[in-house]
Amino acid sequence: MKFKKVLFYLLAGTLAGCVPVMSINPLYDNQTLAFDEKLLGMFEAKDVTWEFTRSQDPNVYQLIYTAESKDDPNVLKGIFEARLVNLDGRLFLDIFPKEAPWGDEDELNRLKWPIDSFFMIPVHTFVKVAISESQLKIWLTDDDKFDELIKADPNAVRYESVKGIPVLTSQTGQIQLFVLKYADDDRLFPNENIMTRKASGPVKDANQTKPAMPDANDRPVELKVKTQ
Questions:
Q1: In a 3-state reduction of DSSP, which class is residue 155?
Q2: pLDDT at residue 191, rounded to an integer
Q3: What is the C-alpha separation between 35 and 42, in angstroms, rounded?
Q4: How far apart are CA 182 and CA 184, in angstroms?
Q5: Short-list 47, 125, 129, 50, CA closest to 87
Q6: Parallel, antiparallel, or unpaired: how do β-strands 165-168 and 22-23 relate?
Q7: Got the DSSP string for 175-186?
Q8: Distance, CA of 62 to CA of 35 (rounded, Å)
Q9: Average pLDDT of the chain, as a whole number
Q10: Are 50 and 42 in contact (CB under 8 A)?
Q11: How far, in Å, CA of 23 to CA of 30, rounded?
Q12: Rounded Cα gap, residues 30 and 4, in angstroms
């Protein structure tokens, strides 16, 4: 199976039909990590939802991705670590796979959704974002557009082509300079999508414990949310 498992047929592809640019090294460092309460909650677009909750690390969000299709009975769901990165006032998400899609491997191999994939290998994917109370705007990378950029500026960033997909190999500092230089260039972030906040109850904590509930004999039974 390629790269152990095609990661999700997830995230960018469902929204934009593209294969994202991936990186061996992260976009963030200790000086650029940020946290914004407005990102907590659930956002939706088309048949996709992104749900951000708190994780044990105060600088890390847990991102639960869910995709549904009217043409396919499968519901695809997976878990990521997401970090908000502030580069000179510009906001980006560094998204890293935490857990494979829910469902067995044979079921995933049968999926026929024509949506993108990044792979279940330890790589980072970058998303430019703008966060408000009601919306999450995201700009996704695209491998074809990246090819255009790199042909015009061959020394912009180091990368390797893996199975025809670009994987950045530069160090974090160099990637930050590259992303900032081309932050408004549609060859790096061509695909703008708007996700709308879904009304819900209080924001969930990924480590939250549910309250005790009585059993049939009125004895309290402690129900806990399983942490990953």
A1: coil
A2: 82
A3: 16
A4: 5
A5: 129
A6: parallel
A7: HHHHHHHTTT-T
A8: 12
A9: 76
A10: yes
A11: 18
A12: 30
Exposure of 216 by Cβ count < 10 A (0-12 exposed, 13-18 middle, 19+ buried)? exposed
pTM for the predicted model, two decimal places: 0.74
To which H or E segment does residue 12 belong? helix 12-16
**Interior CA angle at 78 toward 201 and 124, to 5°?**
110
CA distance 79 to 61: 10
The structure tokens 């939706």 sit at: 44
CB atoms within 10 A of CB 124: 24
DSSP output for 57-117: STT-EEEEEEEEETTEEEEEEEEEEEEEEEETTEEEEEEEEEEPPSS-HHHHHT-------
Could you give the CA distance from residue 143 to residue 58 in angstroms, rounded to a whole number?
32
pLDDT tier at 99 (50, 70, 90 boundaries)?
low
CA dist 99 to 3, 7, 48, Å? Answer: 15, 9, 18
pLDDT of residue 1: 30
CA 124 to CA 25: how far, in whole Å?
Answer: 7
Residues in the chain: 228
Coil vs helix vs strand at 55:
coil
Give the model confidence (pLDDT) of 6-36 as tens digits.
344 444 344 445 678 889 999 999 999 999 9
Beta bridge partners, 48, equal 45, 67
CA distance 31 to 156: 23
Counting DSSP H helices and E strands in the chain, the numbers are: 4, 14
| Residue 52, token pair as written in the block | 């951000």
